[in-house]
Specification:
With 374 residues, the chain is of the alpha+beta class. The protein has 9 helices and 19 strands. A hairpin with a 2-residue loop joins strand 10 and strand 11. The longest helix has 24 residues. The radius of gyration is 24 Å and the shape is elongated.
């Protein structure tokens, strides 16, 4: 299916002349605008998209370069056209960007160096300058529309119970309270992802602290020069009395370009349109690496649903949760075959809905999240 592009006058954006369009205020206008090269006098076409943020009413106007326009725009019978799938991709890219900005604007507050929340190493590396708006937070993690895991801030009652549970088998194994944003996680129900063997497991997330050289040596992790995120995890299998290290890795040139970085490249399945991609690898104490990797990313539910449909995967969330603060999606996949073994989604909640700092978490824009994609 193709969409005809309206020919916009050069001063359209300034005048907001709606007369060429159907009556009524428009939130999306897609057109073509003539532009020229001042030196050569050559005239060429630019794709132009005008949108209005459905939550805040902010206007967004984007013009694409001549080369980018040629990639998606074609001319037939003296009219300009774009394929609907290409237009949808461009608009969804804008929605993902807006969604991403909203997540950070509403959930993160500026931190100050020296306040004890972010280590100097993380500050110096420029990896984080903000912290969650409150410590009264927990995550519900879903897969195949079922709750499979919960992650609790270290100060919450359930986290305190989990610390005691781990201490019975691994006494004082960590400085659990080294950071007030640390997290304790547990599996719920019977579902578990590989390589884990038991749902009787607890995960400790050490926040705003890079993995130390000593920790990497303890798990015999080779130093290949990865750029680690500002947290890492220790996974405790309480039935088998086994510990594992989970390292979280930035997606950058080292991980995404096999030609220039074959030793650090991380293979991955095809992903939906998204932002903030990062990976996780799991190591046993003897240095062996799990056969599965995790890849995480930010996108909007409509894009994620379509991705699952196209790839014959189970969409992770029930419809009743689509309007909530879905802050990240994740795929567990075989590192060799790239077969996806689990699709998961993380939703953040507060234990104190009256907390004014958390208002944004409970007033999320249902326009993007509550309507399933057709």
């Amino acid at each position: 299916m193709k969409v005809e592009l309206l020919q916009l006058p050069n001063n359209w954006l300034e005048n907001k002349d709606w007369s060429p369009f159907d009556s009524g205020i428009k939130t999306t206008i897609v057109g073509i605008r003539a532009d020229g090269d001042a030196e050569s006098g050559r005239i060429y076409a630019r794709l132009a998209i005008y949108l209005v943020n459905p939550k805040y009413g902010e206007e967004f106007y984007m013009e694409y370069s001549e080369d980018d326009t040629k990639k998606v725009v074609f001319k037939e019978n003296d009219k300009f056209w774009i394929l609907k799938e290409d237009l949808d991709y461009l608009i969804q890219g804008w929605e993902i960007q807006q969604y991403h900005e909203w997540l950070y604007d509403s959930g993160i507050v500026q931190a100050e160096r020296g306040d004890g929340n972010i280590s100097d190493e993380v500050w110096d590396a420029g990896k984080a300058d903000g912290v969650p708006v409150t410590t009264k937070l927990y995550d519900d993690v879903f897969s195949n529309k079922e709750l499979i895991k919960q992650d609790w801030n270290i100060s919450l009652p359930r986290a305190i119970e989990l610390k005691a549970k781990v201490n019975e088998i691994f006494p004082d194994d960590q400085d659990w309270n080294s950071n007030k944003y640390n997290i304790m996680g547990e599996y719920v129900g019977d579902s578990i992802r590989p390589p884990y063997k038991s749902t009787n497991s607890v995960t400790f997330y050490h926040m705003y602290q890079l993995p130390s050289k000593e920790l990497l040596e303890q798990y015999k992790v080779p130093d290949v020069g990865y750029d680690y995120k500002f947290w890492h995890a220790i996974k405790y299998d309480l039935d088998n009395k086994v510990k594992r290290l989970k390292l979280v890795i930035e997606d950058d040139e080292k991980t995404s370009n096999y030609q220039t970085n074959p030793t650090t490249f991380i293979p991955r399945p095809s992903l939906p349109q998204c932002k903030d991609v990062f990976f996780a690898k799991i190591f046993n104490e003897d240095g062996t690496e799990a056969d599965e990797y995790d890849v995480f990313f930010v996108t909007i539910p409509a894009v994620m649903r379509d991705y699952c449909l196209k790839n014959n995967l189970d969409f992770p969330l029930p419809d009743s949760r689509l309007g909530d603060y879905i802050w990240i999606y994740g795929l567990v996949y075989d590192k060799t075959s790239l077969e996806i073994k689990q699709v998961k989604a993380y939703i953040k909640y507060t234990t104190d809905p009256s907390d004014p700092a958390f208002t944004a978490f409970t007033e999320f824009n249902k326009t993007w999240n509550s309507t399933p994609s057709e």
